[in-house]
Amino acid sequence: MSSEQRVERRGFLGLLTWGIGGLITALYGIPAVAYLLAPALERAQEQVWIRLGSIDKVELGVPTLFKTTIERTSGWITDREELSVYVITNDGREFTALSNVCTHLGCRVRWIPDREEFFCPCHNGVFDRSGAVVSGPPPRALDAYEVQVEDDQISILGS
């Protein structure tokens, strides 16, 4: 055998080794990259109706606090979060749902019955019955939710 044949054979074996290594890398690498990038490429979660409770709990003209727990999944992490919402009705047919989170710094607001207003104790933010800012530092009204009543159960549209 001449030295030229050995070099060709050696070169072929080198290419074959690199080719097999590349194939193995691709077989393991492509699924691994897809697994890592999948959460980033996932679509935003759809909005769903979150059931709060019975309309019988809501007194006419009095904001009633409903609490529920929701689960949010982001990538591989699932968080449980407590959601609190004030529900108000003046006629028993039309309902308004307001977040109890102040729009200033995210503190919890509470209903003060004798003053007929929502009050944020963190920086003395005051909101009227409809959630509009009356005084204090909050930059905007309380967040409102779309409400649905079905089979005497109140639900809000959330994500």
Would you mind describing this structure in some detail?
With 159 residues, this protein is an alpha+beta fold. It folds into two domains: 41 residues; 111 residues, Rieske Iron-sulfur Protein (3-layer Sandwich), CATH 2.102.10. The protein has one helix and eleven strands. The protein has a four-stranded antiparallel beta sheet with strand order 2-3-4-9, with no helix packed on it. It starts with a helix and ends with a strand. The mean pLDDT is 85.
CATH class of the largest domain: Mainly Beta
User: DSSP helix count?
Assistant: 1
Helix percent band: 10-25%
Distance between the termini: 74 Å
Tell me how many strands there are: 11
CATH topology of the largest domain: Rieske Iron-sulfur Protein
Question: Could you give a quick summary of the protein structure above?
Answer:
This protein has 159 residues and is α+β, with helices and mostly antiparallel strands. The chain contains one helix and eleven strands, in the order αβββββββββββ.
SSE layout and pairing:
Elements: H1 3-41, E1 48-54, E2 64-74, E3 77-89, E4 95-99, E5 110-112, E6 117-120, E7 125-127, E8 133-135, E9 144-145, E10 147-150, E11 153-158
Antiparallel strand pairs: 1-11, 2-3, 3-4, 4-9, 5-6, 6-7, 7-8, 10-11
